[in-house]
Write the structure tokens for this entry.
Amino acid sequence: MNCENCKKEIGEIENAKILCSECYKTVEKERERQKILIRTVAELINWKRVAERRGNFSTILLCIAKDLGVYDKMVEEFKKRTMS
């Protein structure tokens, strides 16, 4: 049997396609990347809705900072810049 992607000879079937282990890993990485992109877009849409309800752009930044766990650091940096 040959890999459907790179035509390298293989002896086993992985997933629904006949792929060698290297091509299979590449396909899996691409699937994972696409899942992450879909989640990111969904989060951006959610943040946009929150900001529209509250009515300003800075709300988006605060929501993103909270979700990323950097809200406290962002507030500290803001205080440093405004105090000096």
The CA atoms of residues 70 and 76 lie 10 Å apart. DSSP finds three helices and no strands in the chain. The mean pLDDT is 75. The two ends are 69 Å apart (CA to CA).
